[in-house]
UniProtKB/TrEMBL annotation:
Statement: the UniProt record of this protein carries the keyword Oxidoreductase: yes
Name of the molecule in the record: SDR family oxidoreductase
Presence of keyword Cell wall biogenesis/degradation: no
Pfam family, one: adh_short_C2
Lineage start: Bacteria, Bacillati, Bacillota, Bacilli, Bacillales
Cross-referenced SUPFAM superfamilies: NAD(P)-binding Rossmann-fold domains
Family per similarity comment: Belongs to the short-chain dehydrogenases/reductases (SDR) family.
Record key words, sorted: Oxidoreductase
CDD domains named in the record: SDR_c
Superkingdom of the source species: Bacteria
Length: 247
């Protein structure tokens, strides 16, 4: 029996969020899953685990606050008995409105901890266990929001910390390519997941030439390609998969 690769997906906390869509897509394509959730109910995590298991996946659900300094160590300590992951999807994010009037040290630190520090520390822990397990093919993917395509003046802390992931992606890709690990970032553009209300949908829809807003499943399918053997020659890239979104 072929052993299923193990993927870690951070930030799967609601049925319609991007993290949940990624988990479903990877479970359907033959992966076992470790997903982290935060501010979700235990009942939801249990039911979502069952949903993924019904697709044939082994699943480990971990309640985790990625804002804590020891979050990466905590996660990998819990994953140790589950197996060695060959895929890391840094999807979790912290976002609040911060313009020049409201930005302060506390809000900046909160964004930094989840959006930048956690992905970097998770990536380094992932790489260390990858080497110790003598694996030869791995994938790291971060989710960004197109911060390098235009200004976000009402979300200064979010734009700054998530934007730094693009630089990290390019630098870390070069660092771990000799180990057989690819590192990429995906910007899915405005996605109709958990944050959109009807007014937002109405305002954004004309900016999509396909006549619809992006769905969580759109980015999940791209990530499935990137983690597959067919995606093994793509690394150090920030992929703007926005369905032609016009700013």
């Amino acid at each position: 029996m072929t052993k299923r690769p193990i993927a870690i997906v951070t930030g799967a906390s609601q049925t319609r969020d991007i993290g949940a869509a990624i988990c479903r897509q990877l479970a359907m394509s033959g992966h076992d899953l470790v997903f982290t959730y935060f501010k979700a109910t235990a009942d939801w995590a249990t039911s979502f685990t069952t949903e993924l298991e019904n697709q044939g996946a082994r699943v480990l659900a971990i309640e985790l606050d990625l804002g804590q300094a020891d979050a990466a160590d905590d996660l990998f300590d819990q994953v140790e008995d589950f197996g060695t992951p060959s895929i890391l999807i840094n999807n979790a994010a912290h976002s609040t409105m911060t313009d020049w009037r409201t930005l302060d040290a506390a809000s900046l630190d909160q964004h930094y901890a989840v959006n930048l520090r956690a992905p970097l520390l998770l990536a380094t822990r992932f790489t260390k266990q990858f080497v110790e397990a003598h694996l030869t093919s791995g994938r790291i993917i971060q989710l960004t929001s197109g911060q390098d395509l235009g200004p976000m003046p009402d979300e200064i802390a979010y734009a700054t910390t998530k934007g730094a992931l693009s630089t990290f992606t390019k630098t870390y890709a070069a660092a771990v390519a000799p180990l057989g690990i690819t590192v990429n970032a995906v910007n899915p553009g405005p996605t109709d997941s958990t944050w959109m209300d009807e007014a937002t949908r109405t305002a954004l829809k004309p900016s999509f030439p396909f006549g619809r807003i992006g769905a969580p499943e759109d980015v999940a399918r791209l990530i499935q390609f990137l983690v597959s053997p067919d995606g093994g020659w793509v690394t150090g890239q920030v992929i703007h998969s926005e369905g032609g979104f016009e700013r």
